[in-house]
Design goal:
alpha+beta; six-stranded mixed beta sheet; globular
């Protein structure tokens, strides 16, 4: 089935979070191949929580880079440390600090710059801990015939540590579950909500938070994994209200096939419970944060 024109245009144009802005020329010399772009991103970024695996100790100042939201901000930070072309790579101490979401947003930004439809997906990876699905982001791109998932974060070292043999440019859909898929599985009893989350934060409330983040990402607003707003429910506010459950059921259904439901997905984003406001709550820094791009 061909990609509808409106969908193709929406997921190919630069957006608030994926526009390279004044750094657009830096993308011109980059390759178009997915695996090559993965290598470029891994050469410029280091994952905050994987840093110890590379024997890198991050300062408190460097860790703050993981709170950068837009591609422009990430590129500003990258070039401030090393002004050379992106494909040249950086030393471990010159890399910009981020998490899976940052690797994903950069991949989407680069693919769109090459004219390839792409979007960020927030959900859960089943390839980090046995029996669990961990909070994770990957990029979804159109290969001309279908949408594929690619994990821009997993480099050769991480692949070896995790004993991964799968194709990271075509991640199987049972290895990465979008938040909508996870929500539906938990709601109909196919999955245990307590297997979804990160660290000691797990449960249907966490799946619901990621569902709203995935919905926002499908509307071209890729927020930080700890940005909270609107209908998101905190664990100290359980149980989840019936009204919120019903809203999440509707959102999950739309995100399972964003192309078919594109117009409804865009219309529902007008709902103040779902749309990203000008100010969100940063749950890591424990403060309100202006969504500056």
């Amino acid at each position: 089935m061909p990609l509808p024109d409106a969908v193709r245009e929406f997921y190919t144009q630069p957006s608030a979070m994926t526009s390279p802005g004044a750094h657009a020329a830096a993308f011109d010399a980059l390759p178009s191949e997915i695996d090559a772009l993965r290598g470029v991103i891994q050469g410029m970024m280091i994952h905050e929580h994987w840093a110890p695996a590379y024997r890198v100790r991050l300062s408190a100042e460097r860790k703050l880079e993981s709170h950068l939201r837009s591609t422009v901000q990430m590129l500003d930070a990258t070039f401030a440390k090393n002004a050379s072309p992106l494909a040249g790579g950086r030393s471990l101490y010159q890399k910009t600090v981020g998490v899976c979401r940052h690797f994903t947003v950069l991949m989407v930004a680069m693919l769109r710059a090459k004219g390839i439809p792409a979007r960020s997906r927030c959900g859960f990876g089943g390839y980090f801990s046995a029996g669990k699905f961990e909070d994770h982001w990957v990029a979804e791109y159109w290969d001309g015939a279908r949408w594929r998932l690619t994990d821009a974060q997993i480099d050769p070292s991480q692949r070896a540590i995790l004993h991964l043999a799968m194709d990271l440019t075509d991640v199987p859909r049972d290895k990465f579950l979008t938040a909508g898929d996870a929500w539906q599985r938990c709601r109909d009893g196919r999955a245990d909500p307590n297997t979804f989350g990160i660290f000691d934060e797990r449960g249907l409330w966490f799946v619901g938070q990621n569902l709203i983040r995935d919905f926002a990402a499908l509307n071209n607003m890729e927020m930080l994994p700890w940005d909270n707003w609107g209908a998101m429910v905190e664990p100290d506010a359980l149980p989840i209200p019936d009204e919120t459950i019903a809203l999440m059921d509707r959102v999950a259904a739309l995100t399972m096939d964003p192309d078919i439901h594109f117009e409804e997905l865009r219309a529902l984003y007008e709902d103040a419970r779902l749309a990203v406001p000008d100010v969100v709550y940063n749950a890591v820094l424990k403060k309100d944060d202006v969504v500056a791009v």
